């Protein structure tokens, strides 16, 4: 048998021995949503199971209306711009920004993700269960968490930051008021050159935080516009954090939605 033939069974056996942690929240009508992306997720049952004539088989199907940035999702690089310019110097003009979406940096350009994941559990490092509403996680907080956990963020990693806010997901008002990252935290992360960063809150940033230098959503400017680093929002990190695992295989598959500014995802953490 070839080397390739031996490798696949070994890979499958290794996967069978992994613990799998789901990092996506369920999608449902009424789930928390950033106000700019209202109504979020809407589902209507279009075809119903009905007894018609002598037929035995019936069929049902529905219609999903969903904002790209609702639920657990990844931001594409076309999601942010500064002075009508996107990451890499791509200028926004009618050829790039069309009525049917973007011709550059859309969600279809995000590759499948199979990379080292690192969980930075900030509340655990600070000795609390959940960070205070509106708390701005600083670069100092992230550095302390890295030291306490004994892990180091490396280039190409997927860095997931826990604030504890995910435990409030069933109650939209306190969830939307949860903690998030400060600008210096985003710069600390960008300096490590990760592939993506994610958090268990609605916007990675704190939506109401207006940075003196960059304005609203400064982390989006630093990570997406300046550094070309993807952001994943609305992660469910409670079970993974409770397991005590801070390093894992992070799996995340964005949908091939051409020209859109973000994609729903079902991310996983695989721990040997």
Structure description:
This is Cyclase family protein. It comes from Nocardioides aquiterrae. The protein is built from 7 helices and 19 strands. It has helices spanning 3-16, 122-126, 139-149, 172-176, 183-191, 218-226, 238-243, and strands at residues 19-22, 41-47, 61-66, 73-75, 85-86, 90-91, 97-98, 101-102, 113-121, 136-137, 158-162, 180-181, 196-199, 210-211, 215-216, 230-233, 247-252, 262-264, 268-271. A hairpin with a 3-residue loop joins strand 5 and strand 6 (90-91). The longest helix is centred in the first third of the chain and has 14 residues, at 3-16.
SSE layout and pairings?
Elements: H1 3-16, E1 19-22, E2 41-47, E3 61-66, E4 73-75, E5 85-86, E6 90-91, E7 97-98, E8 101-102, E9 113-121, H2 122-126, E10 136-137, H3 139-149, E11 158-162, H4 172-176, E12 180-181, H5 183-191, E13 196-199, E14 210-211, E15 215-216, H6 218-226, E16 230-233, H7 238-243, E17 247-252, E18 262-264, E19 268-271
Parallel strand pairs: 9-11, 10-12, 11-13, 13-16
Antiparallel strand pairs: 1-19, 2-3, 4-16, 4-18, 5-6, 7-8, 9-17, 14-15, 17-19
């Amino acid at each position: 048998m070839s080397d390739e033939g031996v490798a696949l069974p070994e890979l499958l056996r290794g996967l069978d021995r992994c613990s799998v942690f789901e990092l996506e929240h369920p999608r449902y009508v009424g789930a928390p949503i950033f106000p700019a992306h209202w109504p979020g997720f809407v589902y209507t049952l279009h075809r119903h199971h009905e007894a018609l004539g002598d037929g035995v088989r019936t069929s049902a199907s529905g219609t999903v209306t969903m904002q790209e940035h609702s639920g657990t999702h990844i931001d594409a690089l076309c999601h942010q711009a500064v002075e009508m310019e996107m990451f890499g110097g791509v200028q926004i003009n009618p050829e790039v920004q069309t009525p049917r979406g973007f011709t550059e940096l859309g969600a279809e350009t995000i590759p499948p993700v199979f990379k080292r994941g690192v969980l930075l559990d900030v509340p655990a490092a600070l000795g609390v269960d959940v960070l205070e509403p509106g708390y701005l996680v600083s670069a100092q907080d992230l550095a302390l968490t890295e030291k306490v956990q004994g892990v180091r963020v490396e280039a190409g990693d997927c860095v997931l930051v826990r604030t504890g806010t995910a435990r409030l997901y069933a109650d939209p008002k306190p969830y939307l008021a949860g903690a998030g990252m400060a600008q210096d935290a985003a710069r600390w992360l960008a300096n490590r050159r990760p592939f993506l960063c994610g958090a268990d809150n609605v916007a990675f940033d704190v939506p109401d935080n207006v940075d003196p230098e960059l304005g609203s959503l400064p982390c989006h400017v630093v990570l997406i516009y300046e550094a070309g680093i993807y952001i994943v929002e609305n992660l469910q990190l409670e079970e993974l954090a409770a397991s005590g695992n801070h390093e894992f295989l992070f799996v995340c598959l964005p949908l091939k939605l051409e020209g859109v500014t973000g994609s729903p995802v079902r991310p996983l953490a695989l721990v040997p």
